[in-house]
Amino acid sequence: MSDWTLTASPPLAGFDRQDDGVSLSEVTDHVLVSIAVPLGGATALHNIMLSKFGAGLPECGCSTVATDGEFRFLGMQQDQAFALLQFRDGHAAREISEKLAETAYCTDQSDSWAMLQISGPRARMALERICPLDLHQDVFALGAVARTTMEHLAVIILRTQQDGFLLMSPRSSAKSFLHALETSMQYVL
Q1: pTM for the predicted model, two decimal places
Q2: Which of 135, 132, 94, 102 is nearest to 118 (CA)?
Q3: Which of 22, 63, 69, 96 is 20 to 30 A from 160, comparing alpha carbons?
Q4: Which contacts qualify for 173-177: CB closer than 8 Å, 24 or more apart?
């Protein structure tokens, strides 16, 4: 028997930077679960989500929040959503899968993504330099979500507050993504 012990570590080592008007912090306490809809099963999934969570299957580009506020569902594309929630015990996919029964296929995606929260009065200005989406509040409202690219890297962006966005990028390119964000922040300070 080996004496080796594995220890989980966040992709960006808990990065946290506060500058004048912009805050950028790694989110390490959230779980991301993929919810795939079986062929022709969108209505059944929507109905069971309403009964179990109080929030239905969101349309693509939108998100819904469970009645208890613990789950946010992101409409990613036709027949796919993500569930975003605070880390509990490492069994989020199983918990969601049990609630949704046979109406969905659930897979934990947490280790595949690096998550960063950018917020503050200059956050949108920092993102405008590298994000091709119009992030004005009249276009990209609270709860809006989209897949995009920033500096040629895949990104999921979710507007979480008036001046705040949750950014998710593949873990394999997390350091490059962080570098792109930090560089963009430098030019708006």
Answers
A1: 0.94
A2: 135
A3: 96
A4: 174/11, 174/12, 174/114, 175/11, 175/12, 176/151, 177/114, 177/116, 177/150, 177/151, 177/153
